[in-house]
Specification:
The chain has 507 residues and is mainly β. It is built from two helices and 33 strands. The strands form eight sheets. Strands 1, 4, 30, 31, 32 and 33 form a six-stranded antiparallel sheet that branches. Strands 5, 6, 26, 27, 28 and 29 form a six-stranded antiparallel sheet that branches. Strands 11, 12, 13, 14 and 15 form a five-stranded antiparallel sheet that branches. The protein starts with a strand and ends in a 15-residue tail after the last strand.
Length: 507
């Protein structure tokens, strides 16, 4: 089965123009009359809150992975009471909505180990746990985290309260007035684990760089490398940096791979990255960067796409996951987190989000920090394979690049009441450009008109959907649409075991 999500121009043939002897311009498979539009997520009710006696701080960065038939969550909690305390906690679920917080007996909180904490200490609230199937059993799970600390004199570590106190005095000092020395330092550290529960520290930093917020490390099984997406800075603004290595414990210096551009507002920066791969298409890389709108002090999610994990485009600047309206529990921020999940039995995509009503810089006001609204986690939710789509306000046309033909072609689309979509198959895209006819029997005029709102509608020609005569051959898919959005297409073989028991895939 091969799903082609239309979330960027990467799958769309760029086309070209041929010229007649009379210098008449003849477009050949050139995309016309179309634009990309994201589908704004719906947010579920909170799926996890701080509801246990030991969870008396603010919930922070979080992640969920699908692992051995269950959903596993690692989430962070910070107590801003004195002294500062940071924890990484664990929960698991069969369905992604009802979560068990097991008593693990590992970390003592408030005099008891009857809790679900897996680690504590500075940096625990900036952790990312991931699985590495190719590593030895004792390193099957790994954790990357950012630790920062204050220093007075070089090498003299001082606690968080004293560091902030000295900084406040320094900022308020008049010119020439002496103050106590203070500086802030940070590095990326690592842990190993056989089970994602019991962690052993890696002796030296995995990266000698400062990267706060939720930094994401992902093991790419195809390339046998660790892909690491980090908080960077570019042009005085927050940005996203990257490094890769076959050795997690020796990451090379990072470089900025995505940052603000002239298409962004001048008061916006990229706060977090929310990296993930597209479910079922590990060759398609996604980020859901948290866009920090600094004039309103709010954070919301956009969509970024890459075909190699290095070169990124946000083809639209539309909010794909907005924060809430004034008075809502998420009016201050909604941070998209890593690992987009496919819930096929429900026909949904879901991405975990960290939400809160507190505005970003309220944290620096001690009185507001003490009375901040509760934080929580929810799912951002879309119909399956509908993160974005190619839209035509009127008439539009484009061609999806060559792909291997299956036995059937399904379309995931929505049209207006007077809209429609038709398809044509071609067995080549020629150069130099010239008009090239569609395959006999699979032309636009043979195609049944598609209307309505469907995620798994078979494309038919002359009343039939059977493409077995073309099975295994390379075909391009031409699309004409009117007042419609096409989100994705799917080529599949009728013997594919993934679709045998799924009625959405006609065989």
């Amino acid at each position: 089965m091969h799903i082609t999500p239309l979330i960027s121009w990467d799958s769309i043939h760029v086309g070209a123009c041929a010229w007649t002897d009379r210098r008449e311009n003849v477009p050949c498979d050139v995309p016309l009359g179309i634009e990309l539009r994201v589908e704004q997520a719906k947010k579920t009710e909170p799926i996890l809150r701080a509801d246990q006696p030991w969870e008396t701080g603010n919930l922070g960065w979080v992640q969920v992975i699908r692992d051995d038939g269950r959903y596993r969550m690692w989430y962070s909690m910070t107590r801003h009471s004195k002294p500062l305390a940071q924890y990484l906690l664990y929960a698991e679920s069969d369905d992604g909505f009802e979560w068990l917080k097991p008593e693990l007996g590992i970390i003592e909180i408030d005099g008891s180990t009857s809790n679900n904490a897996v680690r504590d200490g500075l940096g625990s609230n900036h952790s990312h746990v991931f699985k590495c199937p190719d590593e030895p059993p004792e390193k099957r799970y790994r954790c990357m985290y950012f630790k920062s600390w204050w220093e007075g004199e070089p090498g003299e570590e001082i606690d968080n309260d004293e560091g902030h106190r000295r900084l406040d005095v320094k900022n308020a000092a008049k010119a020439g007035e002496e103050t106590l020395p203070v500086s802030l330092h940070g590095k990326m550290l690592g842990l190993n684990s056989p089970d994602g529960i019991h962690f052993t520290p890696i002796e030296k930093p995995v990266l000698e760089e400062w990267h706060d917020t939720h930094n994401i490390c992902y093991y790419d099984e195809a390339k046998k490398i660790y892909r690491t997406y980090l908080r960077g800075f570019y042009g005085g603004r927050r940005a996203i940096s990257y490094c890769e290595s076959p050795d997690f414990e020796n990451l090379p210096p990072s470089k900025v791979v995505h940052h603000h551009s002239s298409d962004d507002r001048p008061d916006e920066s990229l706060y977090s990255n929310g990296y993930t791969v597209y479910p079922g298409r590990p060759d398609i890389h996604l980020m859901f960067p948290g866009i920090y709108h600094q004039s309103t002090d709010t954070v919301y999610g956009q969509l970024a796409v890459s075909s190699n994990g290095l070169n990124w485009s946000r083809f639209t600047r539309q909010a794909i996951i907005p924060c809430g309206d004034a008075g809502a529990d998420d009016e201050g921020y909604i941070y998209p987190e890593p690992d987009l999940q496919r819930f096929s039995s429900e026909g949904k995509f879901r991405l975990l989000c960290h939400c809160g009503g507190q505005y970003h810089n309220e944290w620096y006001n001690e009185n507001l920090r003490a009375t901040s609204s509760p934080t929580y986690y929810c799912w951002a939710e879309w119909p399956e394979d509908r993160l974005a789509g190619v839209h035509a306000e009127g008439d539009g046309e484009f061609t999806i690049k060559l792909q291997t033909c299956g036995d059937r072609l399904l379309a995931n689309f929505r049209t207006e009441s007077d809209g429609w979509i038709r398809f044509e198959l071609a067995d080549r895209l020629v150069w130099p450009p010239q008009p090239f006819p569609g395959l006999e029997g699979f032309k636009f005029e043979d195609c049944g008109t598609l209307t309505g709102d469907h995620t798994h509608r078979p494309v038919t020609w002359s009343g039939g959907s059977n493409l077995s005569s073309l099975q295994g051959k390379q075909v391009a898919v031409r699309v004409r649409l009117h007042k419609a959005t096409l989100f994705s297409t799917t080529m599949y073989g009728i013997d594919d075991p993934l679709i045998q028991d799924d009625p959405r895939y006609p065989v």
